[in-house]
Inverse folding.
């Protein structure tokens, strides 16, 4: 199953201000339908790496998706779940937020209503079409944000801190939901529990460089990972 | 923080809620123009007042709630009152303007309370150059509660540090709020682009 | 001060609306011609910002409160036409959902607040800044102040033409109130701009239209 390369990152470097590099010489291959978790301290560059893969920042180096260098047609293949759902739900009504992707990617008008309905059912919030995002709880917003991505069935999910600020129960449900979606997933998280539970592989990022990559069998426990984090001084 | 939404009653089933948004906009403007030009005789105002009450009843908007919302214009009227009394016949002029004001704002609030903001945004889109206006209107409607909350949080944080905010502090809070809005706009743009928003 | 419906007569309402709505379309034309569409979210969030600023009231010693306008402030960042455009929309929505100002009086209110603050303010500032570049802060303060005074004079003229007040008797109290508001607005704009300059100067370098 895990032999087709979905994403290939080669010699990726990135800086926001052309002085200090936030990502340094990143090389990584990600296979189809694999879940890769990126762990690391705050400010280690996890979000930036996801943004580069999604083609939302201009970088040096190469990121290939299905063998293709980034181009606009690849957007449809990727869904980006932002850390703060308020940034991703920018329309006045839930329906329009979920329909936004499908509309832009040229789905048929008649299908869109159905798609929105199905997406809402998938995230466990059926009938939320007419709701106003501001009225929703944080957990609900997070789910709607996910629905607004899966509505156009991307093959790759880039999830930035998906469980941040969720209550323990919401977190468990949300993780279950993510696991149930079939796609190649990259999850940036500083929650080691998420990494242990979902990752086929776990990548440790420190100050913008990859320090270590574990296979599932090597990732024994949260404690095991924590020891590595403690050894690597993060930015404080 | 709990905000009460302007279009809460738009989701109820009442008379005005069923009228098409475009028709309501035209009706509103016509009514406002009528109120603007009617002469200063009490008799002319009575039909409008009756109309307001009829709309209120058939659109299932509670009277007391409505009244509370309308009272918002009073501080301004006080200022105008104190200016107009210097004029000959000023009190009479003021009272009729006041009536016009009250009826106009009643119509405006009747319109707003019975129209979904999203429907209004759809309507604006159809107007000339409505695309940009409707986009900005949507962003405004989506984010201003959020910004108000952010401002309140920052203010409370400042107060809890034992600092009573003065004018300069308000300026700093506002500057801060603008930076946050600016940074949020960058993230929102990324979210839009990642979901296929084409820059034409 | 936002004029509610009912306090301006037909001719004043017509004239101000023709001017302001005409200028609104002119601004939109300018914006859509030159604006990088990437800035649409920024305009949207800035509009929410200006709305918030105008809704927040802050206390003065003595128990009264003041609203900031922010129109000049936003035009210094985004430029005169973008500034006018979003301030117009903010004023319109305030009238619609909060009852601050009126619907038919939107022409007058946007002339008094958005046009003076954004367009007049911006070009006056550009002019004086180029003439005497070493007094930036002073110009920001003075022009901030002047935009409010100009706005209050326009307000007086509109109400007088509509036959609601006597100009001579109202001039002093209105000018007095707006002198205070103008000083406050001036201090606000200067402090907020210098805060941005210190914390995130690149914001002040955004494209101005
Ligand atoms: N928009 C930005 N402009 C400048 N620097 C940024 C920006 N976003 C993030 N950074 C910097 O880049 C580094 C990595 O940030 P980020 O990718 O957000 O880390 P993480 O997601 O792992 O917490 C941090 O040092 C941060 O300060
Ligand atoms: Mg991050």
């Amino acid at each position: 199953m895990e032999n087709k390369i979905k994403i290939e990152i080669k010699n990726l470097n990135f800086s926001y201000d052309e002085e200090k590099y936030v990502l340094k010489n990143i090389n990584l291959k990600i296979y189809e339908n694999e879940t890769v978790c990126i762990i690391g301290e705050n400010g280690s560059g996890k979000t930036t790496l996801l943004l580069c893969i999604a083609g939302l920042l201009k970088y040096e180096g190469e990121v290939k998706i299905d063998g293709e260098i980034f181009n606009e047609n690849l957007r449809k293949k990727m869904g980006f779940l932002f850390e703060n759902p308020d940034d991703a739900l920018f329309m006045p009504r839930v329906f329009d937020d979920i329909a936004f992707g499908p509309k832009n990617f040229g789905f048929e008008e008649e299908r869109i209503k159905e798609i929105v309905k199905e997406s809402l059912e998938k995230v466990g919030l059926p009938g939320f079409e007419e709701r106003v995002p501001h009225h929703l709880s944080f957990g609900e917003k997070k789910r709607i944000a996910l629905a607004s991505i899966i509505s156009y069935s991307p093959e790759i999910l880039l999830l930035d801190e998906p469980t941040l600020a969720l209550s323990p129960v919401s977190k468990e449900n949300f993780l279950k939901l993510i696991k149930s979606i079939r796609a190649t997933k990259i999850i940036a998280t500083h929650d080691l529990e998420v990494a242990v539970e979902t990752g086929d592989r776990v990548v440790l990022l420190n100050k913008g460089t990859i320090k270590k990559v574990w296979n599932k069998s090597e990732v024994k426990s949260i404690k095991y990972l924590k020891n590595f984090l403690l050894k690597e001084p993060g930015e404080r | 923080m709990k905000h009460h939404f302007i279009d809460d009653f738009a989701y109820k089933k009442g008379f005005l809620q069923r009228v098409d948004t475009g028709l309501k906009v035209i009706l509103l403007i016509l009514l406002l123009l009528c109120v603007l030009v009617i002469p200063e005789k009490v008799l002319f105002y009575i039909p409008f007042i009756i109309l307001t009450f009829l709309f209120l009843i058939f659109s299932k908007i509670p009277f007391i709630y409505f009244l509370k919302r309308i009272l918002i214009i009073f501080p301004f009227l006080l200022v105008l009152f104190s200016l107009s009394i210097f004029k000959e016949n000023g009190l009479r002029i003021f009272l009729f303007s006041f009536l016009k004001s009250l009826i106009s704002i009643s119509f405006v609030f009747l319109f707003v309370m019975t129209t979904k903001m999203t429907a209004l945004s759809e309507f604006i889109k159809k107007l000339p150059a409505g695309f940009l206006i409707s986009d900005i209107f949507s962003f405004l409607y989506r984010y201003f509660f959020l910004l108000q909350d952010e401002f309140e949080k920052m203010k409370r944080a400042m107060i809890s540090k034992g600092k009573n905010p003065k004018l300069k502090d308000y300026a700093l809070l506002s500057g801060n709020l603008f930076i946050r809005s600016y940074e949020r706009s960058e993230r929102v743009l990324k979210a839009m682009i990642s979901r296929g928003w084409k820059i034409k | 001060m936002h004029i509610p419906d009912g306090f301006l007569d037909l001719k004043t309402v017509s004239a101000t609306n023709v001017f302001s709505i005409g200028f609104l379309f002119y601004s939109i034309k300018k914006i859509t011609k030159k604006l990088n569409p990437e800035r649409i979210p920024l305009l949207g969030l800035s509009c929410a910002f200006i709305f918030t600023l105008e809704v927040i009231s802050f206390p003065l010693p003595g128990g009264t409160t003041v609203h900031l306008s922010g129109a000049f402030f936003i035009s210094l960042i985004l430029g005169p036409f973008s500034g006018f455009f979003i301030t117009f929309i903010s004023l319109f929505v305030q009238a619609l959902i909060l009852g601050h100002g009126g619907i038919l009086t939107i022409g007058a209110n946007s002339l008094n607040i958005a046009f003076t603050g954004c367009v007049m303010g911006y070009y006056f500032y550009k002019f004086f800044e180029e003439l005497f570049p070493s007094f930036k802060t002073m110009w920001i303060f003075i022009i901030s102040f002047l935009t409010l005074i100009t706005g209050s004079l326009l307000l007086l003229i509109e109400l007088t033409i509509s036959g609601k007040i006597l100009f001579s008797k109202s001039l002093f109290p209105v000018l007095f109130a707006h002198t205070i508001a103008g000083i406050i607005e001036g201090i606000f704009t200067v402090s907020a701009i210098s805060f941005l300059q210190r914390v995130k100067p690149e914001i002040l370098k955004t494209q101005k239209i």
Remarks:
- The interface with chain A takes residues 3, 5, 11, 117-118, 121, 138-139, 141-143, 145-146, 184, 187-188, 190-198 of chain B (CB under 8 Å).
